[in-house]
Amino acid sequence: MREPNSNPEELPPIPGKRYFTIGEVSELCDVKPHVLRYWEQEFPQLKPVKRRGNRRYYQRHDVLMVRQIRSLLYDHGFTIGGARQQLSSDTAKQDVSHSSQIIRQVRQELEEVLQTLKRRPSQS
Predict the structure, then answer these.
(1) CATH number, domain at 110?
(2) What gap in Å lies between CA 91 and CA 113, rounded to an integer?
(3) Is residue 3 part of a domain?
(4) What is the DSSP letter of 72?
């Protein structure tokens, strides 16, 4: 039985595919398939696509989420509840940051439109 890698840099690179099976994710993240299925129940952020026969297909963002969960639990010693809370607060921070970025961009575009309108001679 393998011990989980303590260093995330030891995990293999994620191939440039669109979908991964549970077996592939298990290998890429050094986590057994039954653990991945359990984590799906415990972490709402982890939602692989389910297709015929209830087969799971993970996307790249799912693989990255599994690696993040794995790191919180195995490397940083979080409990399941603590890791879930950490991921929720990280998601909220990312949402706020993303919203702020969008607001700055829209403001900049509006200021450019205003400058353009100020330069135009009035046509009335």
Answers:
(1) 1.10.1660.10
(2) 33
(3) no
(4) I
